[in-house]
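Researcher: We're teaching a course module on how sequence relates to structure. For the next exercise, students receive a sequence and then see the predicted structure as tokens, so they can try to spot secondary structure elements on their own. Here is the exercise chain.
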Amino acid sequence: MNCESMAFGYLTVLNNLIKWFPRKKGLATGLAASGLNYGSNFVTYASDVSSFWGIGKLDIIYPLISLAYGIAGFIGPVIGGLIRDSTGSYNVAIILGVIICSTGIFVYSSIMPNGQRGKSSLPVNTPSQFAPSNKAG
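Model: And here is the predicted structure for the students to work with:
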């Protein structure tokens, strides 16, 4: 997908959200950006899992990451609501979320160095592997 089609998709969603929330354009922009990032994460997760642990372990590790993502999506709003109920504001919950995300970025960047990123662990086949054999069979 090229940048123009992603931008068009984002602006289409943003336009509809602004119609639904005409007085809260910041909320509409945040919702559109969150949705775009949420959907595009699934592709990068699979790529990074196969790059880091190898394609052979993708079917074991990727479901666990998806499960953790789902559990966080279920428990996160509950914890945010409890924090809001106890403090009277979402500020503490938002700051805690920023701290957790920042920690995740730091951990990810420390275990996935730039040299490792994007390299596939798939074996590279050389043309000689596909050449016909001269053995009589």
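Model: If you want an answer key for the exercise: The helical segments are 3-20, 25-53, 58-87, 91-111, 127-130. The chain has one domain: 12-116.
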